[in-house]
Fold this sequence. Notes:
Blueprint: H1 3-16, E1 20-24, E2 59-61, H2 65-74, H3 80-91, H4 103-114, H5 120-130, H6 143-157, H7 162-173, H8 175-179, H9 183-190, H10 194-205, E3 221-223, E4 231-236, E5 239-243, E6 250-253, H11 267-307, H12 309-314, H13 325-332, H14 336-343, E7 347-350, E8 353-356, H15 373-385, H16 395-404, H17 411-420, H18 426-429
Parallel strand pairs: 4-7
Antiparallel strand pairs: 1-6, 2-3, 4-5, 7-8
Helix pairs in contact: 2-3, 3-5, 4-5, 6-7, 7-10, 11-13, 13-14, 16-17
Amino acid sequence: MTANEVEDEVRAAVDENPAIEVVEAPEPAPVYEPDRLIPRYTSGSYADGEYTPWETLQETHVATLQEQLAEQLQELELSDSDREIARYIIGNIDDNGYLTRAVGAIASDLMVQTGEDVVESSVERMIDVIQHLEPAGVGARDLRECLLLQLNRRIEGNPSSVASRNALSIVSDYYDELALMHLDRIASRMKLSDEAMRDALGQIRSLNPKPGAGVAAPGYTERANVVSPDFIVENDGNRLTVSVPNRLPELAVAESFAIDDAEPMTPARRKDAAAMAPYRDEAETLITALKMRQDTLLSVMKAIVGLQKAFFLSGDTLDLRPMLLKDVAALTGYDISTVSRATNGKYVAAPTGIYPLKMLFNDRVTDDSDATAHEIMAALRELIESEDARRPLSDDAIADALAAKGFNIARRTVTKYRERMGIPTSRLRRGLS
């Protein structure tokens, strides 16, 4: 479990098990605020968003997309029937902001629910009303309509924008060609210069294909931007120290559940002992498990810091050395599965930032090389950022360029790292320079 999960587990056990007694309250754990310790890895390196740097300490309710749309709807002057239609439409908008039910189906549903005749034109009219709410693009039925709604909103705000008008024409009239990235063909048919085409593409690329995704999903609570690290690594000169913050109270088995061997075991006392035994055993098991957990986490983190000392001193991901679960297991004597559980979902606060432990593990790219995935991805990103946008590098060309830098990896490995970084294929990267 993570530190927060263990705290919840202990709190529940203390409330539910009368045999568990709190002997001493924990000392306040150190709090690390993001303006003091900023994670050194970037979201661009981990496009999956699999690393979440902050653990929750405080939560507040955030209005969902549907709730925000309903609030905006209240400000409009609508008839009761129109308002009922609009509310039903909002209920059929998904968390990405798209309308998921057809106009005819919505009209039929409302007729069944209200018993009144609802015509499709009324539904279409209310869809148009909702599509003028915030965020721009909400209520669209497909991606093309979503982009058009956003572009029309931009033109309303800036009618003289040539780039926005060209972008609108591209999405409206050449959507299929745009999807296939046939940009030269579009520019030729629209008689656009390279600069005009580039500006129009810039407008399109700045649009949000999921306008509702930036709004809270149902049941979401806003997480406070504060971190509770599972480990703390401190640098004393060139010496690193490791600690595991303990925010748990000291627990003991309550005296009333202890067995006094000096007293005779009467039938009544034997019955009481049998009734108390499950509670006492559960309390002893929890106290022993918490001690084992603390010892295990500390041993595992010490091994990791020993293997990645250069990184913890510099904070530079290029200083990460190849490290696998089996390497840590070999140093600690624990089974690989134990090391995996001890590191899964955990974070470490170091002098240079706060990092997920998962980031510290690296395969060797090849058996005869000490290059790590971080080094390969950094070199790959540098190559792609400096490529000619009109003639982007294929994965084969990237593999050759990396080989020239001393990274001898196969094309399929390039593809794997490129996809992990969220970088599209060369065909989709092709644009006008």
